[in-house]
Amino acid sequence: MKIGIIGLGYVGLPLSLQFARSGVDVTGLDVDDKKIVALNAGRSYIEHIPATAIQEQVNSRRFRATTDFSAIKKLDAVIICVPTPLNKNREPDISYILKSGEAILPHLHKGLLVVLESTTYPGTTDEDLRAVLERNGLKAGVDFNLAFSPEREDPGNPNSVVAQIPKVVGGLTPACQKRAIELYSQAIKTIVPVSSCRAAEATKLLENIFRGVNIALVNELKQVYAAMGIDVWEVINAAKTKPFGYMAFYPGPGLGGHCIPIDPFYLTWKAREYGQNTKFIELAGEVNTAMPMYVVHRLQEALNSKKKSLNGSKILIVGLAYKANVDDDRESPSYVLLDLFKERGAKVAYYDPHVPVIRPSREHGHWAGAKSVPWTQKSISSYDAVVISTNHKRTNNQQLGVKCLLITFYSCPATNP
Description:
Elements: E1 2-6, H1 12-21, E2 25-29, H2 33-40, H3 51-59, E3 63-66, E4 77-80, H4 95-104, E5 113-116, H5 124-133, E6 145-148, E7 167-171, H6 174-185, E8 191-194, H7 197-227, H8 232-239, H9 264-273, H10 279-305, E9 314-318, H11 333-343, E10 347-351, H12 377-380, E11 385-388, E12 406-409
Parallel strand pairs: 1-2, 1-4, 2-3, 4-5, 5-6, 7-8, 9-10, 9-11, 11-12
Antiparallel strand pairs: 6-7
Helix pairs in contact: 4-5, 7-10, 10-11
């Protein structure tokens, strides 16, 4: 089987490499020329994906990358792995999915399997994407196959291996389902069929909503327990010794990444179409969104105890990536903290060994070009306060123990707040 994968980012690239390792002929498709040049030269632009893994598959001729979507004419299947952000009104933006459908359309042929992996609301595959793909007269489920299979990437987790993560698959028709199962069975050990594209879409949303709601719970409890003088980390560590009925979640300065802060609101938006309210999701969103301001208030209290004000203080934020040990800074609450501190008159900077320079983005473009400060005792001693927002293993926090330096921890399980 010859397949194409549209979108060579944090989801599409590792999936491409897994298929190639399994002996499948893979064509990576992306509109970013720089990515194409890097991949065909065996170079990686994602920190946790080694260049050697790419070079091996390029050399084997099982993987190639191109911006030429006409390659789809010779493929048996196409998998779409593109972003699904929220727009400025916090509503679902599926434009990248629809543009991918439009790019496939001129080259769509009978028998082609099209699978969407991008997280979205139920109905996107069999309504929105299907409508685009059927514009030239071919019918989904009759002339070509259509399915949805949610991505389950966990960047930075060494135990997260694409081939070992069960793959949920839902097809438009039983025949579409069968084709999608045949596709993924070549590279993934366990396939989990569900009854429809919508059931598969809903499965992914449930996974992320579950996390978002439980993170909101511990974020709220952190504030409550802090007011009571109770260490929330001690409580969590004690609770997780229970061998049943409990799963540990941890508080932090907010939510980041391209999943948890965004995906639940795809369901919230779609639910309104059916006259349904998603109270848990919306409340969890309010709690998690408010966490950066809670960090600001705690820091103000700590500075006041040293007879300092936030206005005019030098603040260093440690960790710009949204989670530990990765270079992915999408939707990171550290950006919110940078903005909030700066708005209040602080002189703010950041340190992150995984993000040496802030890249341009539509959400935080005003920080583009800012550089991570040097990690030296002399450098960090010049700050009035350090806020550890993301606790990378590569960051030696022991070096923060310099004289007169105020340190506040917010997402560091090993250290009391």
